Amino acid sequence: MDNMTSLSKGRKSIDLGRLFSRDARAERKLAVGPVYGPVKVKHPALLLTSKTAGRSKMAAGLNLQPQTVNGRLKLDLSNQGLTSIPDEVFNITDLEILNVSNNKLTNIPDAINRLQKLHWLDAERNMLRKLPRGICSLSNLEVLIVSNNELSSLPPELAKMKKLTKLYIHDNYLKEIPPVVCSMSNLEVLTVGKNPLRYLPEGITRLTGLKSLDIASCVFREFPRQVLKLKTLEKLFAGQHQGRMFHVVPDELEQLQNLWYLSLSNNNLRTLPSTMRYLHNLREVYLRNNQFETIPEVLCDLPEMKKLDIRNNQITRLPSSLHRADKMEDLKVTGNPLWYPPQYVCDHGTRAILIYLKQEAEKRNLHSDNTPEATRDHSPNGLWTGYGRLDFPEQPYLGHGGFASVEMAYHPDWKQNIAVKRLLPHHQILGSERELLYSEARKLNVGSRSAYVISLLGVCLEPHFAIVMPYMENGSLAELLALKDVDVPWALRWRMAHEISLGMTFLHNQDPKILHCDLKTENILLDGDFHVKISDFGQSKWKSQSRVLTGTSPKGGTVTHAPPEFLSDINLVPTAKFDVYSFGVLLWEIITRDEPYKHATKAELISVAVTQGQRPDMSLVPTQPQDVNMVSKLMQRCWRQRPNDRPSFKECEDELRDVTNSSSKEDVLKAIIRLQKK
Q1: Among residues 654, 635, 668, 650, which one has the least CA distance to residue 531?
Q2: Where among 433, 449, 470 does a domain terminate?
Q3: Does 533 appear as a known binding residue?
Q4: 594 a catalytic residue
Q5: What distance lies between CA 470 and its chain's CA centroid?
Q6: 527 falls within a domain
Q7: Active-site residue among 309, 330, 518, 654?
Q8: How far apart are alpha carbons 676 and 33 in whole angstroms?
Q9: pLDDT tens digits, 87-102
């Protein structure tokens, strides 16, 4: 059996991945309402024969006999291949439910206005290009389903339908949500997904009673923030199958306090905002086909969480904290490279997994003492290691700083090379330095959830505290750029720049934010496939701390990447714009493959020059190819003098994604193969 088994509690579990498929009608019907039961009473027969319908051979023999279902008169003409609705239908003036879906209708006659008792009209999956104004006079209509047609507009008279509570217009040709929709204050369900929508109008916030919204598979550049003002929302469909993918979900999602159903499948998400812990009613979450490397911690503590579909991601292990989701009934992790918990546990379903994780967590707590939280979750065997279990080569040093060194070692149990960061031997250990290393471990514990931040494998406790990380065989980005005889193609450089922006976006989206404060090419490591890993958080800060930054100083050359506001006042508390400025200098390094201010004889001279507005030498920036000009403009925005004039990392990420996507993946692959041979 595949070890990515669909996990569920008992046999009553439904594969919601299938139920809520964008291509399945079941998803739409779920939002519409209850399925009608068996026929109770028959209306007097109206059988359309060839004699009474000589005008339409297709209508010959069509059964126009309505049925009473749940107390309402219903006529079902779905799946009949109709090209028009027979005139006789409009004479059934007591009709309350009309289903003409799955036909070949190109229009609905104005005569439909005769059906004044109509409550429900289903005309989905036809070829309608417009709606007749006659529909707008149906004052009792509550549900209108015209999805999967060819509509590019809606009649403004739709505003007359004061009783309309459910409007299904997904999968049409609407380039914008018509203003009339925003005036329909009684709407409770609105589906606009699978339309070429680039934005949501501000007027949509007037739908103060909206409970269910479908915006899936549109072409938004980012998550539409107008949604966050719909405080009554209970269900949100925001999966992107055909449209642009979301990379970040706004922190303000917490404002949707009534939300119990959330679909974010088919995006490019790697994490969720920590503020989601305030969504106490959330019980169903769908995250299929994203880039998650672990189940987001925030979901483990939601009190009502019952169903989680996180299939087809990059998850290798389930966090032990998942056992806290004690109401979880249905967990789906199929399609992940999962190796923890073991296969025999996964085979026994959701409840077995939660019990196993709880037992593992209890074992760790028995050994925890007062060690940092980071020591308990991220090593391959779930525990810390010790120096005695590591094999150090004769020349293990990879680098060192003012108080810590990084050494290569081999872990025989894990069967992999690792990097161990520890306080320098024979160095007088100060409490503040030990705390810096503890703090770095805690940040790596958080950052490990991003593919572009160095992972925390575990820690060593004896004889001194040390951090255990993966060994990066391709060294640092600085080392690669310094190899002048090695060609590093633009396509690969842009991918690296984009991945750095992704990693920094992740760090800045944590609560509290994690600021790196020492972002430079030396602190960007490269794995075997030249993907980046942001490292060295020794100087990084939690945004909520008021402690002044003292580690970043002219010593060691870091002054080259420090922003002018900090160089003017070294006691200034850093903000996210500190890292953005450093990223601008880092982009200059990627473009030029040179060192900034390398001819300066003193760090103090650099400090004065930067505060006066000078920047790295622009004459070294080439004008070709065209991509360079785009990245160069972004670079110069990042290092602007005023912090508020600099972009966010999310903006950097968006622009660099466009540059990266313009490059051929084949070119990137060829570049990697050439570099690996060298």
Answers
A1: 668
A2: 470
A3: no
A4: no
A5: 25
A6: yes
A7: 518
A8: 57
A9: 999 999 999 999 999 9
